[in-house]
Amino acid sequence: MASEQIGYRGPTACAAAGITYRQLDYWARTGLVEPSVRPAHGSGTQRLYSFRDVVVLKIVKRFLDTGVSLQNIRTAVQHLRERGFRDLERMTLMSDGATVYECTSPDEVHALLQGGQGVFGIAVGVVWRDVESALSQLHGERIDTGETLIGPNPADELARRRNRAV
């Protein structure tokens, strides 16, 4: 099934991105990374995140872990929102701790390092594959029907019961 047809609930997004539910909730409430599939509508409703949302969550986590300010992370996330889905996989994000730079070729990375500006980089393609691998072991949800998609563990009784109840 195509990744655009699958959504991930909060706990699954947290597990794949390596963040806490508290971080996820805060980032959604403050607009840093909002779920693009289904936002929460009051108490008891479940947010549903797309694959791309989970990739962005993991990128935000990596930026925070390296000390980039939340203000600069917000700017970078806004930039990522404006980019095409396919573009993310080929992008490298570099930062000197104060500013985030986008590089789409090895020459741009080299030029940035030569200028003494880049201190660390995030190869978005690597994050992409990490998230893909993590989500393949977890449960997704069909966006159109709400059916729980069971990962490779067929012994998961709760997911089987959810599918029977639908």
Number of strands: 7
The H-and-E topology, N to C, reads as EHHEHHHEEHEHEEH
Neighbour order of strands in the largest sheet: 2-1-6-7
What is the helical fraction, as a range of percent? 40-55%
How many domains make up the 3D coordinates? 1
Which features would summarize this protein structure in a list?
166 residues; alpha+beta; Multidrug-efflux Transporter Regulator, Chain: A, Domain 2; 4-stranded antiparallel sheet; 3-stranded antiparallel sheet; 7 strands; elongated; DNA binding; DNA-bd_dom_put_sf; MerR-type_HTH_dom; DNA-binding transcriptional MerR regulator
Descriptive report:
The chain is an alpha+beta fold and 166 residues long. It contains eight helices and seven strands. The strands form two sheets. It has a four-stranded antiparallel beta sheet. Strands 4-3-5 form a three-stranded antiparallel beta sheet, with helices on both faces. Helix 1 packs across helix 7 and helix 3 crosses helix 7. The mean pLDDT is 83.
Short description:
The protein is of the alpha+beta class. The chain has 8 helices and 7 strands; from the N terminus they run βααβαααββαβαββα. It has one domain (6-164): Multidrug-efflux Transporter Regulator, Chain: A, Domain 2.
